[in-house]
Design brief:
86 residues; alpha+beta
Length: 86
């Protein structure tokens, strides 16, 4: 299944971001060189902690965001995308 949303036309705010995170086993948040991985099944973070990483200053889901299987990638890192897409 392939779903795609144009961030210029559709915005995901807090509750939508939490819903996306609840559908996966792992959320990987990338900000600059910092990468934080949340295990949503074994050790889920608080909603506040998760949203702090997933939302940008506008209060909307950071771009790019991509779901690969049971992993949600928020932000960008060559290494993390390479590992997730191979």
């Amino acid at each position: 299944m392939k779903d795609q949303a144009d961030a210029k036309k559709v915005s995901f705010e807090g509750k939508d971001a939490l819903k996306l995170a609840g559908e996966v086993s792992k959320v990987v948040v990338m900000k600059g060189k910092k990468v934080t991985t949340f295990d949503m099944k074994k050790d889920p973070p608080s909603d506040e902690e998760l949203l702090k990483g997933m939302l940008g200053p506008s209060g909307k889901l950071r771009a790019p965001t991509i779901r690969v299987g049971k992993t949600l990638l928020v932000g960008f890192s060559d290494a993390e995308y390479g590992a997730a897409l191979t």
